[in-house]
Design goal:
The protein has 226 residues and is an alpha+beta fold. Helices cover 36% and strands 19% of the residues. Strand 4, helix 4 (106-121) and strand 5 form a beta-alpha-beta unit. The termini are far apart.
Amino acid sequence: MIMARGASNLRACACACACALAAGALAAGACAGAEASDAVIAATGVEGSAADVAQSSTHFRLAPWPRRGQQPDFRLVDADGRPRKLADYRGRVVVVLFGFVHCPDVCPAELFKLSVVMKKLGLTSDRVQVLFVTLDPERDTRTVLKGYVGAFDPRFVGLTGSTAEVAAAAEHFFVEYAKVGDGADYTIDHSTSTFVLDARGRLRLVGAMNASIEDYAHDLAALAAE
């Protein structure tokens, strides 16, 4: 039931997202869909080689991770029920974002942005892994998550766990969230940062909602080339 509604919303919003991004307004967008990403690339001219992107500057464009000390980790499960921890993705640049399937705007907009980034990276995208951690394990079952993130890019991985496991993962990344409302139509308020780890598993960068496709493509390509 939830999956059907989510898939329908993605299809209905695909064209709107393409138009919004082409106009430079993705950060204000309220919908997303993987089927629109080719149109967005054509409209914005972001097609290009990852090598060109990495060589355009020696500096990262996303914010550096400001905290020192223990690196974040988690103990969750993927859509196929396999236990997962961050070390499982060592050797690839990892992009981690937290959200929930019923999120009306921020989550689909950010996932859509990252789906376009992956296309822009070309072959370098094979060295990048996007992870979407649900903050709503009660409703976001493994099946729901798989259908949701797969609609943006089939390589994206959705992760869930018990309420305690999700809370621990969020705490490791200093993510704040709170359930708002009662009944089946509750929502979740949450912080919106996106976290980027290098291939050695070190948290290096933090992306904000106003970070552009070019910013992400540049920095992910640079990290992948290290």
